Amino acid sequence: MAQTLKVNGKEVTVDVDPGTPLLWVLREKLGLLGTKFGCGQGLCGACTVHVNGTATRSCLLPVAAVSGEVTTIEGLSSDNSHPAQRAWIEADAPQCGYCQSGQVMACAALLKAKPNPTEADISAAMTNLCRCGTYGKIRKAVQIAVK
Ligand code: FES
After folding, report:
1. Which atom of ligand 1 lies nearest, measured to the CA of 37?
2. Could you read off the pLDDT of 53-62 as tens digits, one per residue?
3. Which residue range or ranges hold the 2Fe-2S ferredoxin-type domain (predicted)?
């Protein structure tokens, strides 16, 4: 069934089952491989994208339920110039890197919603998991991003 979405500023039409999770449409139909599959159960956050600016776990969201604009890590900036991306580079946050696009997207949504977040706001927003356990560096990157 044809589904029309707005992804990273472009309107796209894909032919998929309406129950297909947004994650798989992004990765398999649109070739946007920056959004990762981790748990597939809404727990880890590797699949985090923005839907209308809100951090959303795309592995659980049926494509037919998407309304509004989707932004993936590829759409955050064309040259890694988004404040969250710059902060991640400055803090050298990634270890293996697998979860980091989801982490950056969670941070970018936080910056948009709360440009001057408290430590409690950061803790509430940054709930994505990291198997390497680089939470200290991720926290440092968020603190750089919000400066
Ligand atoms: Fe979506 Fe883990 S893959 S939350």
Report:
1. 3
2. 999 999 999 9
3. 1-76
